Amino acid sequence: APEIRSRNSFDTDDKEERSSRKRAVKPPYRPPSSLERSERPLVSKLPFDFRFSYTESSTEVRPIGLRFPKYSPFGPGRLRREWTGVCAPAVDPKSRAAATEDELQEKRRTLRERIQGEPLTDAERKILVDKCQRPCTKRQINLGRDGLTHNMLNDVHNHWKSSEATRIKCMGVPTVDMKNVCYQLEDKTFGKIIHRQGGLLVLYRGRNYKPKIRPVIPPMLWKPPEPVYPKLIKTTVEGLNIEETKEIRKRGLSVPCLTRLAKNGYYGSLVPMVRDGFLRDELVRIDCKGLPRSDYKKIGCKLRDLVPCIIVSFEKEQIVVWRGKNHEKPLEEDE
């Protein structure tokens, strides 16, 4: 009996020692943090500058200042590219052998041609488009007021893992310039748009696309603060004095409304509507009630470049644009 007790006590002591060892080895729990510095920063060889939005930002317009100090939205030490406050350039601008935009564009074109391979036949295109329609699949990517963002590139490649084409639904501000949306999608993802109906697009990945060998796209952890740009509306309208500016702004709010924009709607026909409106009157008013102020400011900026026209006012949730003094009327057809 004493031998059995000693064995039992030895077994219990051994179990306690083992459990204490296991508890000591187990590290304490640490929640994941996006601010932790990684040992090796990611290296991406994609031949374009990383921006928050590729459709809603322009390389031609330079900001006049920054609201906050330059802090990379990819996290500290996570990307081997310097953040300039607006973008993370593909080539360090300080280096002597900096590649020009034309060279980077040529690299993107050759890479896209290699991935696409031979063009699709009409039958293949029809099959892919039918597979992406709503009765067959519910998977789609929504492109909203921020346009084509950097993190959406990862979403596109994730969809291409399981299907050769993906459906993209465009809504809101970016749909004013659908040509630019289509160009940026093909340029940044190296895919091809094989179907377009209003704001609905079908993006094909290419014949030579390999899901296991996808490009390195570092995720953007937060939205960077927007820099300071020049004012859209100045004290006086271009070509007018102060009194004429006050009069034209007052008259612009009483002009009959051309159209009313719905929230998150499709605005692809807005530019031709404004051009037709200028044939009847020199001022055009667009009702934007219910839209955020930043949205109709972006719409006014796009109209200024696409129509082209001069922005008069954003008061009372209205966009008022003027065709200008040097507006050229279309030539009348001979009878």
UniProtKB/TrEMBL annotation:
GO terms for biological process: Group II intron splicing; mRNA processing. It comes from the Eukaryota. Residues 118-216, 238-334 form the CRM domain. GO terms for molecular function: RNA binding. Pfam families: CRS1_YhbY (PF01985). Residues 1-40 are annotated as: Disordered. This is CRM domain-containing protein. One of its GO terms (cellular component) is ribonucleoprotein complex. It comes from Genlisea aurea. Keywords: mRNA processing, mRNA splicing, Repeat, Ribonucleoprotein, RNA-binding, Transit peptide. Residues 1-19 have a biased composition (Basic and acidic residues).
